[in-house]
Design goal:
With 143 residues, this protein is α+β, with helices and mostly antiparallel strands. It is 27% helix and 32% strand. The chain is built from four helices and nine strands; from the N terminus they run βααββββββαββα. It has helices at 8-14, 20-33, 97-100, 125-138; strands at 2-3, 39-45, 51-62, 70-79, 84-88, 91-92, 95-96, 109-110, 114-117. Strand 4 (70-79) and strand 5 form a beta hairpin. The longest helix has 14 residues, at 20-33. It is globular. The mean pLDDT is 94.
Length: 143
């Protein structure tokens, strides 16, 4: 995936479907918590081979176990076929922050570093905002 020069607001405004409103609301919440940081649309083939468009918040340099570090986002937001995904690339003591806070996020599915949200009312918004704040605090060099 690569940073795109496509306008994030235009992308979000173009969404039309069952998850469009959730994408716009989550963007509003994430943008408020990440004010002053990069907000950019990433496009291309994502892990697993699917073509994706992800709104990335906060630019980071992500170390990789094998190979050179990569430029990436601290938090990402993407529409999937059956849910909205929020990716949080922050860890504490070797465990992704999403996993450590899974019990505070509501009735959502949690993966290694991702939250799958099927309906916005299933997400505990206060727990989600706390997660965003902790993620930002864990990445002092985020830009």
């Amino acid at each position: 995936m690569e940073r795109s020069d496509h306008d994030v607001d235009a992308f979000l405004d173009s969404l039309d479907g069952p998850r469009a409103d959730a994408m716009r609301e989550l963007d509003r919440v994430i943008s408020a918590e990440f004010a002053g940081l990069e907000r950019v649309l990433w496009e291309g083939v994502f892990w697993g081979g699917t073509d994706q468009r992800i709104v990335g918040y906060g630019a980071i340099t992500q170390p990789r176990p094998k190979g050179d570090p990569v430029e990436w986002f601290l938090v990402g937001l993407a529409e999937q076929a059956a849910h909205v995904s929020v990716y949080v690339n922050a860890a504490v003591d070797g465990a992704y922050l999403v996993q450590r806070r899974a019990d505070r996020l509501g009735r959502v599915r949690v993966g290694s570093a991702a939250i799958a949200i099927t309906a916005l009312d299933r997400l505990d918004m206060a727990g989600f905002v706390d997660l965003l704040r902790e993620a930002r605090g864990l990445a002092p060099d985020v830009r």
